[in-house]
TrEMBL record:
Purpose: Catalyzes the transfer of a geranyl-geranyl moiety from geranyl-geranyl pyrophosphate to cysteines occuring in specific C-terminal amino acid sequences.
Single GO BP term: prenylation
Full protein name: Geranylgeranyl transferase type-2 subunit alpha
Statement: the UniProt record of this protein carries the keyword Transcription regulation: no
Cellular component, GO, one term: Rab-protein geranylgeranyltransferase complex
Annotated organism of origin: Chloropicon roscoffensis
PROSITE patterns, per database record: PFTA (PS51147)
GO molecular function: Rab geranylgeranyltransferase activity
Length: 342
């Protein structure tokens, strides 16, 4: 987890700790053998599931055992088999599985297996008749994400799960999630996941349509373009990040995404004005942080665009300087310079 202190070497290898690890390894080996044997035998009784749960709490990355639990749970959660109409049993089984997963996530909040299994459980849980119109389950899942993202705001597994939950949650407006990303970005500008989620939400919040589009149907029915005033607000937000952490690339990548949308709803004159404003911003940042990689790269790209501020000569100078300052990516900068002559 980001920000978590490591134990000292002495603490990691103390005699007491080594003995604890030996006992734990012995228990783990015994449990693994017992669980895998039951898996081979296809034993899905409660004793087997309890043993598997105990082992998963020790190591939640054993996807074979999660799959074994799926085989047991799937007919129950889908209301199939001998107990096909026992919805109360299905709800109870889903809640127990979510409790197990929560315990595992407390130990390893970045477990791929846990998050994927939780998605699977929640998807089937919300499909049950009694859950179809009950938002409390999804509200609870959003609350879990709040807690985990408070502990580590850059846990991209949790961000991905949050997007999944909100896609199921009919009562969760994208505008409220947009506010949430702004809150997380303000806490830490170096948050790729929050910037990425924000880019998806902005398009969702600004869907537009026309009668002709609706008649055509399909994905074309909704145009996801960003109005000028929205872009202006986003450029102002990302500018704060530049001055706070000019060497952090997450905000610069978001800025490049914004620049790519400038021409969608603006006239040529308005595009020139916006690109000119961004050129001025880059010049300002470079005055404060001379030689900084990201504002130089951004300025070179802006000056390469076909606007009234186009200056390929200056762009080449910037790329040349970057090739010297950042030799690992010198080939990229040379290719960018060559592209200006095509």
């Amino acid at each position: 987890m980001h920000g978590q202190k490591r134990l000292t070497k002495e603490a990691r290898y103390s005699q007491q700790r080594l003995e604890q690890r030996k006992r734990k390894a012995k228990l783990y080996a015994e449990l693994s053998a017992a669980c895998l044997e039951r898996r081979r035998e296809g034993r899905r009784d409660e004793e087997s599931l309890a043993l598997i749960a105990k082992l998963l709490e020790m190591n939640c990355e054993l996807y074979t055992l999660w799959n074994f639990r799926k085989e047991h749970l799937e007919p129950i959660l889908k209301l199939e088999g001998d107990d096909g109409n026992d919805e109360a049993r299905a709800v109870e089984a889903a809640e127990k599985e979510l409790a197990l997963l929560e315990a595992c996530l407390q130990r390893n909040p970045k477990s791929y297996c846990c998050w994927q299994h939780r998605k699977w459980v929640v998807e089937l849980h919300t499909a049950l008749p009694s859950s179809a119109h009950d938002a409390s389950l999804l509200d609870r899942e959003v609350g879990l994400c709040d807690l985990l993202l408070t502990a580590d705001e850059r846990n991209f597994h949790c961000w991905s799960y949050r997007r999944f939950v909100c896609s199921l949650h009919r009562g969760k407006e994208p505008e409220s999630e947009l506010d949430y990303t702004a809150e997380k970005i303000a806490q830490n500008f170096s948050n790729y996941s929050a910037w990425h989620y924000r880019s998806a939400l902005l398009k969702e919040c600004n869907k537009t349509t026309t009668l002709r589009d609706l008649e055509g149907g399909g994905d074309v029915a909704y145009k996801r373009v960003l109005p000028p005033h929205v872009l202006d607000e986003e450029f102002a937000l990302v500018k704060e990040a530049f001055y706070t952490e000019p060497e952090d690339q997450s905000a610069w990548l978001y800025h490049a995404w914004l620049v790519g949308h400038v021409a969608e709803t603006r006239t040529t004159e308005e595009v020139d004005e916006r690109i000119g404003a961004e050129v001025a911003t880059m010049e300002e940042v470079l005055e404060v942080e001379p030689g900084s990689k990201w504002p130089q790269l951004c300025l070179a790209r802006l000056l390469s665009m076909p606007t009234s501020r186009e200056d390929k000569g200056r762009a080449k100078e910037l790329y040349s300087a970057l090739a010297g300052e950042d030799p690992k990516r010198a080939g990229y900068y040379r290719d960018a310079m060559a592209a200006l002559d095509r």
